[in-house]
Write a structure and sequence with these properties.
The chain is mainly alpha-helical and 139 residues long. It has 2 domains: 53 residues, no CATH class; 54 residues, no CATH class. It is 47% helix and 4% strand. The chain contains 7 helices and 2 strands. Strands 1-2 form a two-stranded parallel ribbon. α6 crosses α7. It starts with a helix and ends with a helix.
């Protein structure tokens, strides 16, 4: 049966890869960060990693989503929200792929046209890996 699948790969069904929380973080574990050593944050350490503790010190939670939602629901925090949004955008925009292949490089290169990567989130490193690999994928 395996030999038949190797010889006739069209018979193999679609692969669906579901990415969950922490998938981008996992790509930076072998390299301890991006190309410049910048850490890739998750919701429970984003505030500390991007350095916005002074903007949210009045909140009990460490979870960025909880704090942002609370700030967003209050009208008095428009300036704070704008500063936080700019800080988050600037930090994520500055991340660079490591020189070594990441797990996303291998994942994207292993896909066939009928395969799918499914996620509810935007994965910074995945997007950058796909753009980096587009020349190879078109061959």
């Amino acid at each position: 049966m395996v030999a038949n699948l190797i010889e006739n790969p069209k018979e193999i069904k679609r692969h669906v890869v579901i990415l969950g929380a922490g998938a981008s973080l996992a790509t930076t574990i072998p390299t301890n960060g991006d190309r410049n050593g910048k850490r890739l944050p998750i919701m429970n350490n984003l505030i500390k990693v991007i350095g916005i503790e002074d903007l949210v010190h009045d909140f009990k939670s460490d979870n960025f989503e909880d704090i942002y939602s609370e700030l967003y629901s209050k009208r008095d925090y428009t300036e704070v929200l704008e500063t936080i949004e700019k800080s988050v955008y600037d930090y994520f925009s500055s991340l660079e792929l490591p020189d070594e292949p990441t797990i996303y490089d291998y994942l994207v290169l292993s896909l066939r046209r009928k395969d799918v990567i499914a996620t509810f989130l935007y994965y910074v490193m995945l997007g950058k890996d796909v753009i980096k690999l587009l020349p190879q994928l078109s061959q």
